[in-house]
Design a protein that fits this description.
This protein has about 260 residues and is of the alpha+beta class. It has a single domain, classed as CNF1/YfiH-like putative cysteine hydrolases, CATH 3.60.140.10. The chain contains eight helices and 16 strands. The protein has an eight-stranded mixed sheet with strand order 1-2-3-16-9-4-7-6. A six-stranded mixed sheet has the order 5-8-11-10-12-15. A hairpin with a 4-residue loop joins strand 10 and strand 11. The chain is globular, with a radius of gyration of 17 Å. The N terminus is likely disordered.
Length: about 260
């Protein structure tokens, strides 16, 4: 995983396994390089957490400029299992909020369009990128523990197969910095998590959701060697990442994937 150090501009993490795919743009932004004041300092991309709307708008402009995407698409995340395809109709009819086109509420975005950055907002939850280089299809999934319980990653894999003919074994996956096994405490896990998750305890009442996501993707048909997990805990590293568990009142990071426009 590569890191850019200049704090006067957005600092991004990229995945080595995706870096060689022609035309693909993929970045998980850290909290650095924006204009928001504490406790949202500094690259907060969420409108609904108490930050200044002007600051959020400027932060999103910086994200868009960094990626050089014609369109940046996001939507209200509801910790559910709704999958939205971003097509020409979405771009033409979607409400615009600053530099962002708003998709319908949901927790997964899928597209074949060029020049469109799919943005998921995170602060402990996982953003999971899926890529089918051959068919030119990408997805970005917001998967917190509720999304994991609902099997959202596997549902998106199935959606890609049914809608675009993607074979799971052809997909690449990358899991963003997120809640780690060191900090994934679930005191009421017997009520909140299914028994299939219980073997993934890293210690009593602590769960490894990095391993859970990897397991769910492999069960959905992905090849293990095509799954890259950042393995950086947002709670432990609040100097670089926003963390709801670690900070409560805080910002949200942008995780974006897209195809460059064909020239």
């Amino acid at each position: 995983m590569n890191e850019r150090k200049k704090t006067e501009q957005p600092v991004c993490h990229t995945f080595e396994s995706l870096a060689g795919i022609p035309g693909l743009v993929q970045s998980v932004f850290t909290r650095h390089g924006g204009v928001s004041a504490p406790p949202y300092s500094s690259l907060n991309v969420a409108w609904n957490n108490g930050d200044s709307p002007d600051a959020v708008g400027e932060n999103l402009v910086r994200v868009k400029k960094t990626l050089r995407m014609e369109h940046l698409v996001s939507g209200l995340q509801v910790h559910g299992a709704t999958i939205n395809e971003v097509d020409e109709q979405t771009l033409a009819g979607g409400e615009r909020h600053g530099p962002v086109v708003l998709a319908p509420p949901g927790d997964a975005l899928v597209t074949k369009l060029r020049g469109v950055g799919l943005m998921i907002k995170i602060a402990d939850c996982q953003a999971i990128f899926l890529v089918d280089p051959g068919r030119g299809v990408i997805a970005n999934i917001h998967s917190g523990w509720r999304g994991s319980v609902q099997g959202l990653p596997a549902k998106v894999v199935q959606f890609l197969h049914e809608r675009f003919g993607c074979r799971p074994r052809d997909l690449y996956a990358a899991v963003s910095p997120s809640l780690g096994p060191c900090c994934g405490e679930f005191r009421n896990y017997r009520e909140e998590l299914p028994p299939s998750f219980w073997p993934f305890q890293s210690s009593p009442q602590y769960f490894d959701f990095w391993a859970i996501s990897r397991w769910q993707l492999v069960e959905a048909g992905l090849r293990p060697e095509r799954i890259e997990v950042a393995e950086r805990c947002t709670v432990c590293e609040t100097h670089d990442f926003f963390s709801y568990r670690g900070e409560r009142t805080t910002g949200r990071m942008a995780a974006v994937i897209g195809w460059k426009e064909e020239r």
